[in-house]
Amino acid sequence: MSAIDVHEAIGLVHREEWARIVASLTKRFGDLDVAEEAAAEAFAAAVERWPADGVPPNPGAWLTTSANRKAIDRLRREHKRDDKHREAQMVYGDGPSEPLGAIDDDRLRLIFTCCHPALAMETRVALTLRMVGGLSVPEIARAFLVQETTMGQRISRAKSKIKAARIPYRVPSAEDLPARVSGVLAVLFLVFNEGYLATGPGTDPVRPDLTAEAIRLARLLRALLPDDGEVAGLLALMLLTEARRTARVSAGGELVALDEQDRGAWDPALIAEGHRLVRERLAAAAAGAVPGRYQILAAINAVHTSARDIRDTDWSQVVALYDQLVRLDPSPIIVLNRAVAAAELDGPAVALAAVDGLEDTLSGYHAYHATRADLLRRLGRSDEARAAYDAAIGLAGNSAEIAYLTRRRDQLGS
């Protein structure tokens, strides 16, 4: 195996095993700092040794063993005056631990730890992206549009707070779950979005490892809370979005817009499962349950994935669902997305008027400029469209999206 193949193998193992290794170390040693540092050192050792020794038959087991040894070495150095019993406990046993909760899954416990309400929402997302998603600090900093040092400090403070406050490593008890799950859903949604359309240069435009992990955790939450409509809604939303993944980026690395995608490449099994969940929630709504944000977004995606051709899309239903969502969440991004759908019903001029009203709040958001550019193009206002495409390209961080926007701009001609 060549050095290039070995490094590709290490990258694959990192995507597949990072969260599991960090979670198992956190369970054993009860310290996120120790877990992260030991996992990072184990992967560094793999980078050094595997090109010469070859990739081991079970890379995950090799990394887990190496990480455990490195964690023990660190704790021995830090507690070298402790009694021998404590050292033996580190070597031979896991020691006392918090109750595991209804589902025995290390990564689910880890995400509940990272998403504790004692931490600010922005910090929860960053910490989860690092500890569960395995993103580097620079990648997370780009996602939050902050300096790398700032993000590093934010993550370090979060880990210190978890340690100082003795935040337990467990799934909350049944009575605590409803208050905690909304924050976890918000974080899982953002983790999924980072995989669906990764931010920053130098990263793959799509991170299927992140989308797969977000879906896996959402499934566990669904098993934990089978009657929670928003858990079902988020899982359905993820499934219907993930179903389109293979059609979203061309062989040349360019983003493929919904109206240009090969719908035959969509995953029918994921679509069927997502539609089933949406139907369940529609039945609950008919019985009086009030749908939340994720359920409405899932319903919108169900309309899109029900159409065999973009021309078959029921845009009136999409707009009606966005109207319902705007009443629940009148955020500028939701209003922007509604305008995109409204353009198919009322025309680009009406949609552009709605989009232009968002300039004060969304002028730094690349999708705002990309939407304006497309509407201006459809109205034949090429010079203004070109300027809007330039603004979108300057703000976009995803290479596939930049390639798509550049092509659409260049199609306007000189």
UniProtKB/TrEMBL annotation:
Domain RNA polymerase sigma-70 region: 22-80
GO biological process: DNA-templated transcription initiation
InterPro entries: DUF6596, RNA_pol_sigma70_r2, RNA_pol_sigma70_r4_t2, RNA_pol_sigma_r2, RNA_pol_sigma_r3/r4-like, TPR-like_helical_dom_sf, WH-like_DNA-bd_sf
GO molecular function terms noted in the UniProt entry: DNA binding; sigma factor activity
Domain RNA polymerase sigma factor 70 region 4 type: 111-162
Pfam families hit by this protein: DUF6596, Sigma70_r2, Sigma70_r4_2
Name recorded for this polypeptide: RNA polymerase sigma factor
Source species of the chain: Jiangella rhizosphaerae
